[in-house]
Amino acid sequence: MSYTVETRVLSIDPYNPDPETIQVAAAALKAGGLVAFPTETVYGLGANALDAEAVRRIYRAKARPANNPLIVHIAAPEQVDQVAVDVPPVARQLIAAFWPGPLTVVLKRAPHVPANISAGRETIAVRMPAHAVALALIQASGVPIAAPSANLFTRPSATKAEHVLADLGGRVDVLLDGGPTVIGLESTVIDLTVETPIVLRPGGVTIESLGVILPVIELHRQALGEDETAPASPGMLAKHYSPEAELILFSGAAAPVTARMQQTAREHLAAGRAVGALLVDEDRAIFDGLNVPVVSLGPKTDLAQVGRNLFAALRALDSMGVDVILARSFESTGLGATITDRLTRAAEGHVVEVTG
Ligand code: TXA
Ligand code: MG
């Protein structure tokens, strides 16, 4: 397959997008093209959701398997009724509380929406992003926009335009560069087509804050990393968000984990491998005296910052050419749960539980 399109990169003010620039991108969408654009979570790779051929192009550009459904982005809560049917009251409540924002609701798909958006499923995932560029683009194009994260399949999601260009340059018609994204982690995906709402992917909206509206909520076993055989949401495959390097995730009490990480670093260095570390500020010194470059995610006490920096940090370690990345897991509550979920996937299940 050849990709010969020339990617037009247009800078855009993330708060006050220039209408003419938005028009250029909207015209590309209306013509069936692909436009990468910033949202508050990560960059999206957009196409007209009502154009099955344009949607097919998304799968091709990302090298994404055709069984992994896409999220549809809308610009106003009422538009949910243009893409979904039988929207339950609980969905209205969640929408009122969390939109615009990093919550994706899975509903019953309206029959006129092309089935390949949802990889043939009868459901549809919908979200209204909280980003002026995304909203202006959806409004100007006049259609809902299908958009997965703008990275190659299995690579870390793109939180900066340069990541999009690295993965998808020559495969997208227009890239709107609105600077780094604010949340840096993808949306929370919740399935509301089942009896008990089920979180398929933890994300920017925490489970705890969903609990305010939904007293009974399930976390999909796959989302917990327990079941790799039957993904309810194929995007939850264990291999995902992966750097090129092998990532090893350590979990357990602080002191023994530090000791184990140091020991592991020494072993890999002795075997001639280049080792890097993905740490928080508080841990910066734990590899002092060893030849281990450290990328810090920010202070452990600021999980929003850690989340914002995570995917860029994975890419930064890759560009240093390390063979192995050592990282520590985070708490299992709030955004910590989302961050640990992404690290677990980046580690492709290689998690070392340190006891005692
Ligand atoms: O924050 C985000 O959600 C970003 C921005 C661009 O909006 N988008 C994003 O899309 O992360 P993507 O395609 O990388 O992840 C979509 C997730 C996948 O895990 C997919 O399996 C799930 O949503 N999903 C989409 N449609 C679904 C459906 N009908 N049923 C179940 N899961 C679905
Ligand atoms: Mg993705």
Describe the structure.
Helices cover 30% and strands 19% of the residues. It contains ten helices and 17 strands. The protein has helices spanning 19-30, 52-62, 80-83, 89-98, 132-141, 161-168, 207-211, 254-270, 303-319, 334-346, and strands at 8-11, 35-37, 44-48, 71-73, 84-85, 103-109, 123-127, 145-146, 174-177, 188-191, 198-201, 218-219, 246-252, 275-279, 294-296, 324-328, 351-354. A hairpin with a 6-residue loop joins strand 2 and strand 3 (44-48). The protein starts with 7 loop residues before the first strand and ends with a strand. Magnesium ion is lined by residues 148-149, 157, 235.
Compact summary:
30% of the residues lie in helices and 19% in strands. With 356 residues, the chain is of the alpha/beta class.
Percent of residues in beta strands = 15-25%
| SSE-based structural type | alpha/beta
Count of DSSP helices? 10
Q: Which ions, cofactors or small ligands are bound in this entry?
A: threonylcarbamoyladenylate, magnesium ion
Amino-to-carboxy terminus distance:
52 Å
What proportion of the residues is helical, as a percent range? 25-40%
Major β-sheet annotation: 12 strands, mixed
What's the β-strand tally? 17
Mean pLDDT over all positions: 93
H/E element order: EHEEHEHEHEEHEHEEEHEEHEEHEHE
Q: What are the segments in which pLDDT stays under 50 over at least 5 consecutive residues?
A: 225-231
Describe the global form. globular
Q: What is the CA-based Rg, rounded? A: 20 Å
